[in-house]
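Moderator note: this is an archived Q&A kept for reference. The question asked for a predicted structure of one protein chain; the sequence and the answer are reproduced below.
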Amino acid sequence: MEVSVQFQLILYGSIPNLLKAIILLVNSLYLSEISISNVI
């Protein structure tokens, strides 16, 4: 049980970081597309 609880805590701790990384990537791509469209 302890191992599974620790594993769940690790998953819950890593999920927000993954979401933050994905959001940052999406935001960077979105901003790059806006800048490219503005230049064109």
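Archived answer notes: The first helix runs from residue 2 to 39.
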